[in-house]
Each structure stands twice: as structure tokens, then as C-alpha cells.
Fold each of these.
Amino acid sequence: MEDSLESLILHGCRLAEILEQNLPILADQPDILVNSCEEIVSAFKNVKERVLSEGHTGVQELHGSEVGGVIREHATMASLDPRVITGVGGAYTRRVEDVVPESSEMKRMSLHDQRLGMGLELMFGEIGGGGGDVMGTGSSGGTGGEISLDFSIASSSQRQGRKNEIDKVVKRVAAPQMGSDTPPEDGFTWKKYGQKEILGRAYPRSYYICAQQKLHSCPAKKQVQRLDHDPFIFEVTYRNSHTCRVTSAATVQIPPSTTAPPPPPVSPFPTSTIATAQWLSMNMFHHVGGVPDSSAGMLKAGSGGGNSNDFQPVAEMADAMFNSGSSSSNSMDLIFSSLDEHKWDSTEEKKDQ
DNA sequence: GAGATTTGACCAGA
DNA sequence: TCTGGTCAAATCTC
């Protein structure tokens, strides 16, 4: 079963490779180009349908040595072993890991591309656990290829925070620029009122209040914390909803209740790396969890009920990639590029061994 | 000079 | 008592 699935994937990859190799020739032959692309899309759609119909669960591995890549997916429904997807030569790693104490109900999948200055993370509820919901949404920003997914934590355990943890949203966003100390613009104007070293964290936490607080008595606050293991990603915690509703930009998301994402581009082929990344983000947004919540403009990323849906993000990620219509392996490289300086290579893979 | 940022001190919850 | 969150004076920037 896996072999046939693998062969389907390899078939799609081969088609993509062929297209890539002949791209210079086909550049002025749109008809052939379109047909070739449709063939590739069709191949990966077949993969997607096969994956979904067979309801992949448990441990599974897909090897693609011919394209120099290995897609590996480890998971057990009971214990949420780390799920790792390694790519071309193992140069990039995507994994689901604990980012919070084991008692927490949050798990995440994170993707990060330092060259693009792009980070992408998925969170979903505890597998096999009960209780809280993790509400998710996605967005793509215009600065530095920022990609982010927002998740409102509504679990009971999360509410037992130090102070008022209700109406708290944790968001992870990539730094708008390499080495930037400031988090990406989120559409609101903030006033920094404090910074503090946090025990056990490598980087200080910054505290912000809404700049409209005085004018509108807006209670919104946010905290910005760099991740220890990936300083190119900020963990932004929003507290309290904005009551001012006055934004610094016309088209902004309004955390914590983010608005619906923009429709995907008409063309299936983004014209730049950033567009590709953003486009992937939007695809991810549309697919992760699947069921839009029109009332809040958010998506349910996981029910937290420990059912088979918990396994969806991996399949959906494949869906997003395979359905993207990306015709060449370059696009994969762009999104999950193999970078020598990629810190995950050294740090994360050691853990895996 | 006004507004933003920094930083040490203080407060409150666990 | 420890630690995260907030306050407010000092400092910086425009």
C-alpha cells in the first residue's frame, strides 16, 4: 500500500523534475507548460486522495530516494511521538514537538525558513486528551515574508494562569527581517511599557499596551518573546481584545479575533518566493482543521478531543503542498530550503537520534 | 518639547 | 519567597 503511494509521489516528483529541466525550452510554449503542470497537479491529487481515503494513522514512512528526499512521518495516536518530516538530504526538518510542559495541551508543528525570514507554525490540541479547544487561524503578512498562524487558547488549564488569562491569544510570527528585534507589524499601534528577563528564557520579554489606551481606554496588551530555540520567531501573546478598533493600517487583521483570510491568488503559481510562502500559508489556512467558524473568522485546528482529526494537520500539510500546483522541486526548496546555517539541522536532528 | 523607550522598583499571585 | 507583570522616573529620539 505504502509502496504504491510512494510510487505515486515519485511519479509526481519525476514529472516535476522533467518540467524543471525543460523549463527554459517550455517557457515560450504555454500550452505544453499548462499540460505538464496539470499532469503534475493530477499526480499529487491522486496522492492526496489516496492518503485521505486510506486514513493514514499510526507509523508510516515514505521514502523518496530518487528525489534525494525523505518524507518521514512518525506518530502514534496514543502518545504523540514527535512527527518529523525531513527533506532533501535531511537538510530541513519539520517536527511536531512539545513547546510547553508535558502537562500542557498544546502541541505544535513548526516550519521555518531563515532565508525567507519566514516561520510557520501549527498548533493543535493534545492527542488523546480531552478538554480544551485550540482555535486557529492563519495569516500572511507583507513584511519580510511573514507567515503566521494564530491560535486562541481556550483550554481550562490555560485559563489557570497567573493573572487574567482569559481572552489570551498566543501567536508565533517570524521576524520581519533577519536579526530584527521588533516583531512584525500586526496592524495596531503599540506602546512599550516594560521589558523583563524571564527565568529560563534566553531572551527578555517585552510588554506593550495599545497606543489607543488613553484615547479609547483600550485594554489590549501584548507580550513579545523570542523563542529560545529559534530567535527568528517571536511568540506574541495578546491579552484583552481591542476596544478602540482603530488601526494603523487599512487592511489589517484584528487580533485576537482575526478576520477571514484573503482569497488565494488566481494563478496557481506564485511569482516570487515570498508569494509562494504566503500562498502556502493561505493554503494551510484554508486546509488546517477545515471547518471555518464564521462567527469568529477562525478555524478550528483541533477539537482537543483526541479523535482522528488530530492527525489531520500532517495530511493537510501534504494537501496544501500537493494541491499547490507547484510544479518544480524548486518550490519545495523555497519553502523548506536546505540551509547550511539552518539551526534545526544541528539541534533538532540530534534530538531525533 | 513631546512622545517613545529603557530600566529599576514595586506589587500581586502561586 | 519567587517570579511575572506593571509602574514611573530617567533617558533617548525626532
Note: Residues 55-352 of chain A form one domain.
Amino acid sequence: MKQINLNALRVFAMVARHGNLQRAADVLNLSRGAVSQRIKQLELDLGVVLFLRGAQGVSLTPEGERCRAATDDALALLETAFVDIGAVNDRVTLHLGSSTASKWLMPRMDGLTTEFPKLSLTTQVHEQPLQRSLGRNEIAIWPGTTPDTNPTHQCRQLTDIRLVAVCSPDFPRSDRPMGLETLLTLPLLQDAHRRWEKLIQATGYGDTHKLLNFDRSALAIEAAIGGHGIAVAPTYMVEADIQSKRLVDVWIDPEPSEERLFISWSREHVGGRPIRRIVDWITDEFAASPPIR
Amino acid sequence: MKQINLNALRVFAMVARHGNLQRAADVLNLSRGAVSQRIKQLELDLGVVLFLRGAQGVSLTPEGERCRAATDDALALLETAFVDIGAVNDRVTLHLGSSTASKWLMPRMDGLTTEFPKLSLTTQVHEQPLQRSLGRNEIAIWPGTTPDTNPTHQCRQLTDIRLVAVCSPDFPRSDRPMGLETLLTLPLLQDAHRRWEKLIQATGYGDTHKLLNFDRSALAIEAAIGGHGIAVAPTYMVEADIQSKRLVDVWIDPEPSEERLFISWSREHVGGRPIRRIVDWITDEFAASPPIR
DNA sequence: CACAGCCGTTAGTTTTTCTAAAGGCTGGTC
DNA sequence: GACCAGCCTTTAGAAAAACTAACGGCTGTG
């Protein structure tokens, strides 16, 4: 027996439900001619007449009724199974550094949840980049000097990483912007990247400076907000606080650093899932950052 | 959620069963590229990865396993329902004249049921041609001067209608074949078509003849078998009795009559049903009739 | 008789499905 | 390391299916 066109069964079930080709066509977003042709071809393929046609619509023949029962059961079975599978799939895990999470993502969480109301987002913070491959609904945002080379990943650069020195607006300081020499006379707040030390070493200044160290960039930034000194951090981490006037920038590295921020996601992303749209949204947010000074 | 392509599920189920795209393609009579594309599109539509691909074939992911289970259940449900429905449909109704039924069809019923062992045949005899359209599993055999003109029917000529005069082999007669003049001196048996009267009128002979009339051609033929006279009937109605030596032909009309025998069936015949094959068988039986004399 | 509402058909367009061909990857063998 | 077999993927183009728009027929109602 020639293979039944299973897609036609969906049309058949809708016609059977409504008893009316035109109404089924409306529901299915098809023309009534398409529905008519579909039913006709299905009848030819099956070798039975499924509907009696009349001026008040159609009614099922006995054979049609038996087809309808089986078809409804089968479609219900599939619908249930696939809705489940589809639903499970609107869950995305975002892997990123804890400071990026708290200083970049959290201030934008309202925007993200507004854009993707049905998204179930898991934010997993890490101190080191993931070593394993990303699953199909995972995104990672990570700094590095080269893009992600994992062949199962797709990768895109989000931004240069440019360092900026920030402090509380109330922090006593002579002028703005400051020269580096003046900066270094002030209490300096640095994170685990030891950015100040690297900066000082790079510029050749002396090393008798007051340094306060924190495990997390975010903590250093919070300390700066608290008036405890000058923090240096990537621009994207402090942008939101600058916008909110909790911080002011007092120096910016004229050269971007060697590192850039990358976003990676699995090549096995599939249609219907918002993962690529989330990637695009994040990309757009970075692109839309106002320039500092 | 975009509608799942149900036909692709059939492909998916076959790949899942074989764990191998190439083998599934072989079974489905598709190229391996077609199967690959089908699975890929299904994954995009569903938003999940269904298979892990490898050098030794494919294996289901957990989501794929869940899809497979639901798909197999649904396809099994449909297969069972539609195989049943297809089977029920081997019921054919044959409409024909009662004499054609008893004198042409009955002697061949063994051949027909041998050829179509699963056929459920209903023979409905009528004295007048059907006025309504034939249903999709109905065949009609009817004499006429023109083919069936009903636009929903298909029609084919089975045979010319040629009249033959027959009697019992034991019937007293001078010789064979007889001239018409001699014939007309004998008791003549005719049916409702009043074929003898028409024949006599057409040839211009006198009309003082002994005529026995019957409601049915078959009854006239049975009377001839009983030795009561000479019956005239279409060749196809007496062929079987001649073959069985119950009758002998003593005259045949040198010209075929204006009427021919036609077979009609519904244009809405559908694939998988034997109706066309039954029509062909009946056609072949008429074509295979041995010439009388 | 006119009209509304239904279904059916046709010709042509659009979309989907498929094939053929080319190519990449993995595991096994020599 | 080279080669091969067997697997899957992708692409371009052809074929088939699906669809639309338009036209038309039929039935029931007022």
C-alpha cells in the first residue's frame, strides 16, 4: 500500500473536527482549494471515501470515522510528546565570569527578560573558562586573546577589552582625567587579574603603591563605589555604574588590551530555540555601549 | 511552534530503528542525502538534536529517544488503523441484468473467485439500467447502443452483441445450420426483448409463427435446453451452455446488432482496490470467448 | 428567483523533496 | 603514515508536492 501522507492527516483531522472545509482551511491558514485537494488525494491514497459532501459542510463516512479516531489518537500522542520536548528546550545556560555576571549581566537582566519572556535562563558563573564542549543550549562569554577554537562551537567577538580606572564621584581627586603618575599616588583597588600591578609594571613606574586586592572584579568595583580607592576594570564591567553616576572614570587606557571578550555557543543550535537570538541580543547590547568619554 | 513535518517522522523512526542513515535510506527508497536533510530539518523544526553522528552510524540522544518512543507508538497506531481500513474496502458490487448474471457470470464465478480470493462480491441484478451514478466500488455491465455518458463513470465496450439461435442437441431438426425459413417453422422461444419478433419483422417473413414468450432471456434459454424450441439470444449468454453441450447453435445472425455490451465503473476508483483489476478480468473473459462456429 | 455558503477543479506559482555529485570524518588495516 | 571502507553532510539543480487565485456548480433559505 502506498505510504499515507501523514501531513494530510493533520488536515483531515481538522476537517473532521469542524465538519466544514472552509473553516478547517481558515484554522490551518490554507485556501479551501488546498484543503479540498488534500482530502481528495488522501482518499485516493487510502482507497476509501472519508467524507460525505453537502451544502452544509461535510460529514464523516463510517470509514472516515474510524480514520478520525485513529488519527486523533496518534496526533494527540505526538503533540503531547513534542510539546514536552519543545518546552524543555527553552532553557538556556549562560556561562560567564562572576564579575561579568554581576557587573554586566545583572544590570541588564530586566532588558533580557523583557525581550525573552518565556526564557528560562540559568546563569552559571565560573572562575575559569569551561574546558568541555558547550551543549546545544549553552552560551559562554569569556575573555581571551584568541577566539574559541573548539570545533563544535561557534564564536563571535563581543568587544575589545579596554581598561578604565574608576572611583566614587565623591572620592577626593585633583582633576580628571588624571595622569598615571598622579593616579598611582592614590589607593588602588585591583582584582585577581592583578591589573594594576601589570599596568604599573608595563609603564615602568616605581612599585611603592597602596594596593587593595580582591578576589573578584566586582568586589573591587564595589569598593571603588564605596570610596575606598581607584579600581581598574574593563569598560564593560563599569559602564552600568558610570551610567548610574555611582562611579566616574578618571583614566582610560589609550590602548585596548590584548584580550578581547568572546561569546561562544554550540554549533548544534537548532531552529525554534532562541539561542541565536539571545546571542544576537547580547551582541547588540555590547555594540550599543556608549563610548566612555 | 512551527508544525512538525509528520512525514519526516517516518524517516526519523526508520533511522532510529536502523541506527544508520544509509540503511534507512535503502529501506525507504531514498538517497542518503535526502534522509540526512530530512533529519536535519526535523531537528531544526523541533529544536532538539535527535542523533549523535559518528563513523559507525548514529545513536539517539535522550531527546531523540523520547521522540522515537512517541513516534513509534503513533505510527503503529496509524498503521494498524489504516491497514484495517484498506482491507475493508475489498467489497465490490456488480450491477447487471439478471440473465447476464445467470448465463454469463454464474458459469464464471469459480474463475472470478479463484482470481480474487479475498473479494467480497455483491451481484445486484436489475431489469433496467441504473439511473444513478455508480459509487466508487461499483461496476455495471449493460447493453446499449452508445457508451455510458455519465461524466463520473469510466466506460469500456466488452463485446458486440450478436444474436444466435440455439436449441437442445436432441431437438428434432433437419440440418445445421438452418435457413431462416426453416427455423421459423419451429417453436420459437423469446425473451422480453422480443428478439424473434424483431428478427421476423426485419426479414419480411410472414407472422404466423408459434412463439413462446418468457420474462427473462435465461428462462427462454432454459426452455431451449429443455427441448421446447429454438431460443435466440446474444452469443455471450449461451456460450457456456454450448461449451457444455447442453445447447447447439443452429443459426447466427450474420450481422451484429446495433447494441453492444458495455462495462462502466466509477471514475472515483482509488488506488489499492481491485476494481480496475476486476474490470480488466471481465474484459479479458469477453475477449477470450471462442468464436461460435 | 436571488443569494449565501458550501465544495470542487484548474492553471500557474511557490515550496518542498529528492537526486547526483562532491567532500569530510572516523576507524581499521597494512 | 597511507590507504580504504563506510559513514554522514552539503550543494545545485530537477522533479514533485503543495498551494493560491479564480472560476464554477450545488443546495438550502428567504
Note: The longest helix of chain A spans residues 62-88.
